[in-house]
Amino acid sequence: MSYSVGQVAGFAGVTVRTLHHYDDIGLLVPSERSHAGHRRYSDADLDRLQQILFYRELGFPLDEVAALLDDPAADPRAHLRRQHELLSARIEKLKKMAAAVEQAMEARSMGINLTPEEKFEVFGDFDPDQYEEEVQERWGDTDAYRQSKEKTASYTKEDWQRIQDEADELTRRFVALMEAGEPADSEGAMDAAEDHRQGIARNHYDCGYEMHTCLGDMYVSDERFTRNIDAAKPGLAAYMRDAILANAVRHTP
Question: What is the architecture, at CATH level 2, of domain 114-249?
């Protein structure tokens, strides 16, 4: 059985022009011709074309492909073994590249699409990428995580700067309340806690009072949060936790 050049082009996903070129340079000369002089390809020709396309996919130039396939000492099985080894190595390389791209996509989808200089400018010494793996592990399956990804995907440096400025202003409010001797369940402290909750909801994800209370607890239970918050004033993390709890109680029927 033989096949026309159009059929072979369809089988192999190449153009008729490519097959004509392979014939012209002697790389793939069809075994038969029709009475009208048209190219006809045998099953053996298709096997050779498969070998050619394998090597081409691996980046071999046509002259090297011809030399490999026309080597009289070459065993067809040796070709397959060699191609298997080369393809396996390429697959491994592509997997690593895909993993790197996925990481970049994930970082960007979380809104951390800033240059190192921009990140330092906005966040100072804090690197928001540092805890990304832990964030995914702890909250990756939650609605809050998905909402945050969607909301922050298009955030620019200016957006992150605005959010950071809002956070800094809230920190100053809490510190001023502490220094004025206002208890954590005072109106001023609870109002600051409410603004804190609404900022999270506005910029990241829906943050109800129960979730907000859980966040407040984490500010004290996770020493990394405590250390970062207390850098503004010792005891601030606990003060915020207590204000958040008082505010939640205030809004709970």
Answer: Orthogonal Bundle (1.10)
